[in-house]
Amino acid sequence: MKIDGGCHCGYITYEGEADPAAASICHCADCQQLSGSAFRTAVPVKSDTFRIVTGEPTVYVKTADSGNKRQQAFCPRCGSPIFSAPPGDGPKTYMIRLGTVRQRDRFAPKLQIWARSRQQWLDNLSSTRALEKE
């Protein structure tokens, strides 16, 4: 399906094609730290359909404990994470940060990775008091 989205401040916008069945959750320590949360949700978008429409993200390369290198792209103005991707030229898959996708309500994650790093308190969220508004 066609998606579009952007950062919190609106400086960066993008578009692409993504499969709602391919959305995932990552529980690795890097994703926890980079998202400022217990996990990160993402959806893959192939480079032949992905396009930055406005703005230009800041990109740096993070080397994981495994030795794998990943570009981390974020808005230089508001800091919103936009995607990760393998470094270098050529065809690649961008892992678009689901919170930046305008159609995010249509992407229920179907896979969780790095489950061994999962925060155990996530199992109890359904019993946590919930307020409809602050």
Which tags fit this structure?
mainly beta; 37% strand; 1 helix; seven-stranded mixed β-sheet; 134 residues; Metal Binding Protein, Guanine Nucleotide Exchange Factor, Chain A; three-stranded antiparallel β-sheet
Please describe what this structure looks like:
With 134 residues, this protein is mainly β. The protein has a single domain, classed as Metal Binding Protein, Guanine Nucleotide Exchange Factor, Chain A (Beta Complex), CATH 2.170.150.70. It has 1 helix and 10 strands, in the order βββαβββββββ. β8 and β9 form a beta hairpin.
Structure at a glance:
Helix content is 5%, strand content 37%. By secondary structure, the protein is mostly beta strands. A hairpin with a 7-residue loop joins strand 8 (81-85) and strand 9 (93-97).
**How many domains, in number, for the residues?**
1
The main pleated sheet reads as: 7 strands, mixed
Q: Approximately how much helix is present in the residues?
A: under 10%
Q: Total helix count?
A: 1
The total count of strands amounts to 10
CATH architecture: Beta Complex
Spatial order of strands in the largest sheet: 6-7-8-9-4-3-10
CATH fold assignment? Metal Binding Protein, Guanine Nucleotide Exchange Factor, Chain A
Rounded average pLDDT? 94
Q: What is the CATH top level name?
A: Mainly Beta
Helix/sheet category: mainly beta
Rounded to an integer in angstroms, the radius of gyration calculated over CA atoms is 15 Å
Percent range for β-strand residues: 35-45%
Shape summary: globular
Topology as a string of helices (H) and strands (E): EEEHEEEEEEE
Spatial separation of the terminal alpha carbons: 33 Å
Unreliable runs: none
